[in-house]
Design a protein that fits this description.
The protein has 543 residues and is an alpha/beta fold. It folds into two domains: 319 residues, 3-Layer(aba) Sandwich (Alkaline Phosphatase, subunit A); 132 residues, no CATH class. Helices cover 31% and strands 18% of the residues. It is built from 17 helices and 24 strands. The strands form eight sheets. The chain has a seven-stranded mixed sheet with strand order 2-22-8-1-7-5-6, sandwiched between helices. It has a four-stranded antiparallel sheet with strand order 15-16-18-17, covered by helices on one side. Strands 19-10-20 form a three-stranded mixed sheet. The longest helix is centred in the N-terminal third of the chain and has 22 residues.
């Protein structure tokens, strides 16, 4: 492709990019294109949000608003005690490309998380994370055209090999350039997710990580050469780094306080173990029961019923796993045991009869089972404030085995979330000290253990802005995730939404603000895709 598309602004999203990862690659000359953007533009750390995880952070970046306004707090959304994987119908604010559409600008968006099913605007969109493998695109039928043009395109890599990740990265760039030539956009958003996924799967694979970043750099170089953007913004949703603390089992702690009740035999929290369905047939479909558990369509098999029976008399999956771990067999057995079997024998949180619990570890917080809000609430509205304060005091006083505080902040949700969707947030926000402790929802019978994952998300990401109108003397200031959207709008001389929580970065001329009518979205579509759920579980986003 050689056509000059006249792209005005290109936003490149590199999931989990941060100075810790990038600086060694810059120093060794591995990323010439990214290094050139940094050397000719303004760059530095980009503070993420609470919680600093993909499904919530990217909507904050591309709406410029905190989750209390856009409505996505985790990979999961909860309705009573039921749950689903989030999708675009949960994003209740306008995106960058929708605002640009109101001002007559056309956009091409490739691989942006939480954009399925896509909403209509002038341009083209291929959804990213939380979309099904064959997603509906905008315009409809677009994915077939892309595959006809560039070959295979998948939302998720074919497997967890470096080659599969590289193919996914390459296909993002090729798809974007095909769409840019076809639609001649003013704005482009090209997102790369594999740079995060490899750290969840193989954080010690330095050669693999380098290979993925080199491929990102190659795709960025080819896109710049093809599209000639006037301004380039590179941004990540969060950073990445090693856990240097402990795994804190929040629900075990709450059980000690008398807030969590448990149930055995598969009727409580949906639980995925380290056995990631490896012994199940490829593509086997699962359905979710009304209480949030998973089961085969034909009902639990003999082994599942046996495990449930054992769990009901105290021989739970956790106890079996602990015994196997003591003799060095836990990993070998986990590779051969299907998750449905482990879940059937797991002691789980009984949400209906508990006063408080952690539902999703990446929400970074605790929910109260409030009367009038939850179907079977046990905490009365009159007791809500007292229960919440008591729990916050217990959590603030909590120390890890090394004597250091577990949390750097424990606060009511209104300290972090504001807006019409804040009621969807956790009641108590719990921020681990330096994000060095792994918060787990799974019951183990003890408060602390070794982190399930050696690396995970950190608060500090990365941003760079380059172009002829970028004022290098002003720099990026104290850049925040929510600053990216108003900054991109300013490169089009388009005023930001006055309700945005971010501001234009100092290096870009300020265009001002205006009032936009709030996006009205009464639609709510279920994701209900077993492949998506397994993929998120495999990366540790769902326990």
């Amino acid at each position: 492709m050689t056509a000059d598309t006249g792209l005005r602004t290109l936003l490149v999203g590199i999931d989990a990019a941060c100075e810790r990862v990038l600086e060694p690659l810059f120093a060794e000359g591995e990323l010439p294109t990214l290094a050139s953007i940094v050397s000719t533009g303004a760059s530095g750390p980009l503070q993420s949000q609470v919680p600093p995880w993909t499904a919530s952070a990217w909507p904050s970046l591309y709406t410029g608003m905190n989750p209390g306004k856009h409505g996505v707090f985790s990979f999961l959304t909860f309705e009573g005690y039921d749950w689903d994987v989030v999708n675009a119908t949960d994003v209740r604010e306008r995106t960058l490309w929708e605002l640009l559409d109101r001002h007559g600008y056309r956009s091409v968006v490739v691989n942006a998380p939480v954009t399925h099913p896509p909403r209509s605007f002038d341009g083209a969109l291929i959804p990213g994370y939380t979309a099904p493998e064959d997603p509906t695109c905008h315009p409809e039928g677009l994915l077939d055209d892309v595959r006809d043009s560039i070959g295979n395109y998948t939302v998720y890599p074919d497997d967890d090999s470096t080659d599969a990740y590289r193919r996914a990265i390459r296909s993002r760039g090729e798809a974007f350039r095909y769409l840019a030539e076809r639609f001649d956009p003013d704005f482009g958003f090209l997102q790369f997710q594999a740079t995060d996924s490899i750290f969840h799967r193989r954080p010690d694979d330095e050669a693999g990580i380098r290979a993925l970043y080199r491929e990102v750099d190659r795709q960025l170089a080819a896109t710049i050469e093809t599209c000639h953007p006037e301004t380039i913004v590179v941004a990540s949703d969060h950073g990445m780094g090693p856990y240097e603390g402990y795994e804190f089992r929040v629900n075990d702690f709450l059980r000690e306080l008398g807030a969590v009740e448990t149930v055995r035999g598969g009727r409580g929290m949906p639980t995925w173990s380290r056995a990631r369905e490896r012994s199940l047939k490829a593509g086997e479909e699962t359905t979710r029961a009304g209480d949030g558990t998973t089961s085969d369509e034909s009902g639990p098999g003999t082994l599942q019923r046996s495990m449930a029976a054992l769990a009901s008399v105290g021989l739970t999956s956790q106890r079996i796993g602990a015994a196997l771990d003591r003799v060095g067999l836990a990993d070998a057995v986990a590779r051969r045991v299907p998750d449905a079997l482990v879940s059937a024998g797991t002691e789980q949180v009984d949400f209906r009869n508990s006063a408080a619990y952690m539902r999703s570890r990446i929400e970074c917080g605790i929910r109260l089972n409030l009367q009038g809000r939850e179907p079977n609430g046990v905490v009365s509205e009159s007791d809500y404030d007292d229960v919440r304060v008591d729990l916050m005091n217990e959590l603030r006083a909590l120390t890890a085995p090394d004597g250091e505080p577990v949390f750097e902040a424990v606060a009511p949700r209104e300290a972090y979330f504001h807006g019409p969707e804040s009621h969807r947030a956790v009641d108590i926000v719990t921020i681990p000290a330096d994000y060095d402790h792994f918060l787990s929802t799974t019951l183990h019978g003890e408060r602390f253990g070794q982190p399930t994952e050696p690396w995970n998300h950190k608060l500090e990401g990365f941003v760079a802005v380059a172009g002829e109108t970028v004022d290098l003397r002003e720099g990026i200031g104290h850049a925040h995730l929510c600053d990216v959207a108003p900054t991109v709008l300013s490169t089009f001389d388009v005023p930001a939404d006055e309700r945005m929580d971010g501001t234009v970065l100092p290096c870009v001329p300020y265009t001002g603000e205006q009032s936009y009518p709030r996006f009205e979205n009464d639609e709510s579509a279920a994701t209900d895709d077993a492949v998506v759920e397994r993929r998120l579980a495999d990366l540790g986003y769902i326990e």
